[in-house]
Amino acid sequence: MSDPDVKIPAGKSPFWRFSIKFYAEPGVAEACIALQDQAKVDVNILFFLLWNATQGRAYGKADVAEVERMIGAWRDMAVVPIRNVRRALKSPPPVMTPETAEGFRTRIKAVELEAERLQQEALYELARSSRLGQPSASPAKAARTSVDGYQAVLGAFPPGPLGTVLSAFANFKTPATDSDG
After folding, report:
1. Per the count of CB atoms within 10 A, which of 66, 120, 126, 146 is most buried?
2. In angstroms, rounded to a whole number, what is the distance separating the alpha carbons of residues 89 and 64?
3. Region 10-34: what's the mean pLDDT?
4. Please, where are the H alpha helices in 57-138?
5. Is 99 exposed, middle or buried (0-12, 13-18, 19+ CB in 10 A)?
6. How far apart are CA 106 and CA 91, in angstroms?
7. Given CA atoms 151, 65, 123, 49 in this order, what sign does their dihedral have?
8. 84 confidence band (pLDDT: 50, 70, 90)
9. Distance from C-alpha of 162 to C-alpha of 35, rounded to nearest angstrom
């Protein structure tokens, strides 16, 4: 990682750029939503682990538990409640027209994305400043180790969506300029 004193402009961290590109890969968005809904996976933490794998770092159970401890309060206070409001607005109460509710829902979606970006920026700073994780022989091995560590914290992930994410990761090309900004 780079010098912790060098500030990356907000929203421009290599981790955020990785996440935007990886989420756009075929099948990844749907698989992530399934992991989130079925196994309570924090997709930002999952992506953090995968991005670190591209950097040759693997996170075991204790490391993942520490990341979860440090970031969980923000997710539970900001990201999840905003997501719940956005999802609820898919079926607005009769007093609100669907068009009006959808316009509001679109604005809520932007706020949710900003809350997730802020979480990712906090995770990126954590990666730059902490001693969590261990060097790994390859990105694929690091990804597998880290995902296994995350499952050890949360419980088993649904194999179908997890397989989709891991397969997409195995085929994902991270430009060299995304390694650290």
Report:
1. 146
2. 33
3. 91
4. 61-74, 80-88, 98-129
5. exposed
6. 13
7. negative
8. very high
9. 7
Can you say whether the dihedral through the CA atoms of 145, 159, 21, 102 is positive or negative?
Answer: negative
**Tokens matching residue 44:** 């930002």
Q: Assess contact for 119 and 44: CB atoms under 8 A.
A: yes
Instruction: Read off the DSSP letter of residue 93.
Output: -
Q: Which helix (H) or strand (E) holds 160?
A: helix 159-171
The 8-class DSSP code of residue 180 comes to T
pTM, full prediction = 0.89
Tokens of 69: 């401890």
Q: Which residues are CB-neighbours of 163 under 8 A, at least 6 positions away?
A: none
b/e per residue 141-169 (b: at least 16 CB within 10 A): ebbbbbbebbbebbeebeeebbebbbebb
pLDDT digits (tens, 9 = 90+) for 131-143: 999 999 999 999 9
Contact between 153 and 61 under an 8 Å Cβ cutoff? The reply is yes
